[in-house]
Amino acid sequence: MALVTSVPKSPMRFVVRRSPAPPGDNRGGPTKEAGVLKYQLIHPEILRGLGEAGHGAQVLIADGNYPLVTRSNPSSRRVYLNLAPDLVRVTDVLKVLVNAIPMESARVMVPDNGPEPAIFGTNEGSAEGAVQGTSEAGKSGTVLVAGYDSGKAQIDAINGGSEMGAITQNPVGIGQQCVVAAVNAIQGISQPATIDTGFYWYDKTNITDPQIVADLYQ
After folding, report:
1. What's the pLDDT band for 50 if we cut at 50, 70, 90?
2. Pairing with 123, which of 24, 33, 154, 156 sits 20 to 30 Å away (CA)?
């Protein structure tokens, strides 16, 4: 696993927004908006790379199968995250970056040949990025995309056919179970170690069902 910043032509990349420069300032250096904003990310080398990123900077997240030495700019900052097989995964890194920096766009790596792999966005931001990336690659509707949670962009993508569906949590059930657990606690009734609050799969066939609509947000 490696993360590379400022890659000119990476298959999976994010473009970092920059705030308008002051009058007369034509420098291309980093700004506050080009660095980490929410500071949920704590990896020092990744923080350093993102902090040095400027307008139009790109980030490549690749696994061990990607020919990093020959397919990336040698001047790019490289951060190796190899820990163990399947650790750390691309989706794990993406989940942290989505919550750490503003992104203008995302593109998903597509193989040179063979079947197109399906994509599962493990949160709202990564699902939206997958939909946008497949659209920009001209693969919308061809590459299967599934998401998590909801949001207007995902709902529109599902209705439009560029996302096959998503898993939503059950906030109605969560609230109900919280009330039941609180009453049981007041009455001294023992609680289970795990309380299953439920989830739903929704797509074009059931997205307008009242039970599903109650659990979606825009």
Report:
1. confident
2. 33
- Structural domain that includes position 178: 117-218
Mark whether 139 and 173 lie in a shared domain: yes
Q: Considering the entire predicted model, what is its pTM?
A: 0.53
Assign 61 to helix, strand or coil.
Answer: strand
Compare 112 and 208 and report the one with higher pLDDT.
208
Distances (CA, A) of 47 to 5, 35, 216: 11, 8, 34
Counting the structural domains of the chain, the total is 2
Q: Collapsing DSSP states into helix, strand and coil, what is residue 139?
A: coil
**Alpha helices in 42-121, H assignment, sequence order:** 44-52, 68-71, 90-98
Q: Say what the pLDDT of residue 182 is.
A: 94
Please choose, from the candidates 200, 113, 186, 88, the residue with its C-alpha nearest in 3D space to the C-alpha of residue 150. Answer: 200
Q: Note whether 122 and 186 are same-domain residues.
A: yes
Instruction: Quote the CA–CA distance of 82 and 90 in Å, as a whole number.
Output: 11
Residue 112 lies in a domain: no
pLDDT of the residue at 4: 54
In the chain, the amino acid numbered 170 is N
Please say which residue of 107, 138, 164 terminates a domain: 107
